[in-house]
Design a protein that fits this description.
The structure is a single chain. The chain has helices spanning about 10-20, 40-50, 65-70, 90-105, 115-130, 235-245, 255, 290-295, 325-334, and strands at about 1-10, 25-30, 55-60, 80-85, 110-115, 135-140, 140-145, 145-150, 155-160, 165-170, 190, 220-225, 250, 280, 300-305, 315-320. By secondary structure, the chain is an alpha/beta fold. It folds into 2 domains: about 1-190, HUPs (Rossmann fold); about 220-334, Rossmann fold, CATH 3.40.50.1220.
Length: about 325
């Protein structure tokens, strides 16, 4: 695997300022007002590796429950809560001003969020307003200025040293363990809810799919299917297996592009990153883009009738068989 180092340099004065102050991190909390996103606990662990105090910003509408939950996690020093009607929908145009105002008052050395659609949508805007280079999808933190991320669908590793006075970064949840509960609550403070111009953007509605199965990015077991399933109806084979395993169901991009399943099930570089205890890949060839989204799984099982499929190179266990026979037999025996 290729590895290279990139230095993002600013002026000598800025470099000196960055090293002169102690590290302090503002974590932007992802939630739905009543519950935390499972990925948020992973971002707290990443923030702890930076050293210094960790302040969490919870912005939303009636989000007291989420603020209480984040305050219980080990490592959190303080919880800031901003509530306003315009935060409904968590639009970056509405949330960025409160982040910038909080940064202006407290001068944090790092602003951090998880590399989910929420974080990747919001923090680039914050970085642009602060005139710094955003650091995306960080998988390792060497020190407060040096970070590691993968590029080229995980085929190369880049070490980045940033000399910006404030580092704005998203971290890959699968690269960090979730923070445990501390057993005590961090201090909570309500702050002024600075908002953006509603003429720029406004939230109308959202249509969310509902399922009794675990959420894909937080499930301990994931069963994914590829184009070899031939049509969407055949995904019923995977749903039955997933129900037996209490698993989430995912898919390759090829299956999503073919219209077999909705795109919120896609696992891969342009989909969701997962790292379950068990990942079962059914009729998935193992393209680089898919491997980038699941290669951190603890145990990988591949079922494919093509013995030369690349997925077998990363699988811990492989079964060369027709999925239409193997999957029903496996489901029956569980």
């Amino acid at each position: 695997m290729l590895q290279r180092t990139i230095r993002l340099s600013k002026s000598v004065h800025q470099v000196t300022s960055a090293y002169a102050r102690n590290a302090s991190t503002l974590v932007i909390v992802e939630h739905n007002n009543s519950e935390l996103s499972p990925a948020t606990a992973h971002s707290i662990t990443a923030a702890k590796k930076l050293g210094g105090d960790i302040t969490c910003l919870v912005a939303g509408t009636d989000c007291g429950a989420a603020a209480d939950a984040i305050g219980q996690l080990d490592g959190v020093s303080k919880v800031l809560v901003a509530q306003h009607a315009t935060y409904k929908g968590f639009l970056p145009e509405m949330l960025a001003p409160v982040i910038l105002e909080t940064q202006s008052k407290n001068n944090y050395s790092h602003i951090l969020a998880t590399a989910t659609s929420f974080g990747k949508n919001l923090l680039p805007r914050v970085a642009a307003k602060l005139d710094v280079a955003p650091l995306s999808d960080i998988s390792e933190i060497t020190d407060e200025n040096t970070f590691v991320r993968t590029i080229y669908a995980g085929n190369a590793v880049t070490t980045i040293k940033s000399n910006d006075t404030v580092k704005v970064m998203t971290v890959r949840a699968t690269a960090f363990d979730p923070a445990a509960s501390s057993g005590s609550a961090a201090p909570r403070e309500d702050i002024t809810a600075t908002t953006g111009d509603e003429s720029m953007a406004s939230w109308e509605s959202a249509e969310l799919s509902k399922s009794d199965r675990p959420e894909l990015t937080s499930a301990k077991v994931v069963v994914s299917g590829g184009r070899g399933l031939k049509n969407g109806e055949n995904f019923d084979l995977l749903y039955k297996l997933a129900d037996k395993l209490h698993a989430a169901v995912g898919a390759s991009r090829a299956a999503v592009d073919a219209g077999y399943v909705p795109n919120d099930m896609q696992v891969g570089q342009t989909g969701k990153m997962v790292a379950p205890e068990l990942y079962i890949a059914v009729a998935i060839s193992g393209a680089i883009q898919h491997l980038a989204g699941m290669k951190d799984s603890k145990t990988i099982v591949a079922i494919n009738k093509d013995a030369d499929a690349p997925i077998f190179q990363v699988a811990d266990y492989g079964l060369v068989a027709d999925l239409f026979k193997a999957v029903p037999e496996l489901t029956e025996k569980i």
